[in-house]
Amino acid sequence: MGNRRFEMYEYRQAIVSMRLGASNRQIAKAGLMGRLKATELRKIALVEGWLEPGSPLPDDSVIAQVVDKGGEEAGPRSSLLAYREEVQVWWEQGIRGTTIHDALIRKYGYQGSYSSVRRLLQGLKEAHPEVSVILDFEPGEAGQVDFGAGPKITDVYTGEVLATQIFVMTLCWSRHQYAEIIRNQKVETWLGCHRRAFEWFNGVPGKLIIDNPKCAITRACFHDPEVQRSYAEAAEAYGFLISPCPPRDPKKKGRVEAGVKYIKGSFMPLREFRSLADANQQLHQWILETAGQRIHGSTRAKPLEQFERAERHLLKALPDVAPELSIWARVKVHGNCHVQFEQGLYSVPFVLVRKELWLKASESTVKIFHELNLVAVHPRLRRPGARSTVPAHLPPEAVAYQMQDPRWCLKQAEEIGAHCRELIGILFADRVLDHLRAAQGIVRLAQRFGPVRLEAACRRALAFANPRYRTVKSILEQGLDAHEGECLDGQDLPTAYRGQGRFSRNIGSLLLH
Length: 513
Known about the structure:
Number of domains: 5
CATH architecture of the largest domain: 2-Layer Sandwich
Radius of gyration: 44 Å
Strand order of the largest sheet: 3-2-1-4-7
CATH class of the largest domain: Alpha Beta
């Protein structure tokens, strides 16, 4: 019966007026309903026999059933009637009305306007209203945690403009809260905020109702969410349960969301912050002096008084020793025998190259595990690009090259002999080529041939003005170092040639003949 919805008392008053002889015009002047609407109602009342003076007035349920039926028959047929079921499925999936309208045009060539879709969706919302239930909590039973957008702070000391967020933990029973202005949602920040919140309350609630941030939940799921390993360890250490909300259902933690809105609407406006530390100092003072002392709209009591009176002593006690909050991360070993964590490099045994390991980072140390076995321990690096390397983690050849520097080579050569020291010194004096590997190789020849033969080979190589690794090695392999020092009548041969040529006879033997 038209677009406007009439209340039941208006229908009854109109029917009573008709029984008393009022015309449609008089009903319209009385403001009950328009003449067209009164005409339609009179037709229905005549058919149903409601206008007969001796008959009793029908019940409201009867009027509603007949009037609604008549309105459906009289009203225009919706252009979306053929697609109603599919549109309802899309609506239940949370798809926007404009997207539904575009899909109808694309799939079915729908020619109706978006207003038709909007009216249908409005009817679905009215037919399926969202219903919520107020959750009740006992003192100390639970807390709720959430993030919110924080203020932009210009640090007066550095000039840096900081984009911030607000971490809020609200106790469900008393509504007392802890809040902190932070710079990011990293796992380390998340765990640190929890620690400071528990110290603020001087206790731990039985469970924490949270959303599904990546710093806490690695895989959001209605039935089987996966908790971030670091957060799971913190929950075990402090003794609280983690209760993630179902995906896309933040109403399960409405109390902390209201607390976030309260901070954003009452604390942040019209305030100036000199730095992040100054902002947090003001926020904590505001919680104690303003937020904690207000009359809460739901409990009709002051949150701080409620907390002190009945909830503080029912929280779980803090551990005697503060747990070491650590960050767990999956890392892969690069070809340089290091893993990367927060722009720092940490070495692991070279046999684990290309494998995936678990890294556990605390405030001071970094521990690396492979299949539950601890394979490396390093101090925590804070400077970007810093590297912590244990020499034993590197391949032997790499360690040798790294540890056996020029100073080491010269020291080893001195122990072998003066000629070896002289040859090594000539190599390092080259201004064009780096001869470190050659020097290392010459020194290592002493392990194979002995220092006496190596010294002799170096003397022979110097005599021929050929101080190279390949020359010294060839002399030793061919045994030419044994001819070193051959002389005539006790006199050394000229420096240009000392020794016996391959195709020449000994000069002494020629003179004897």
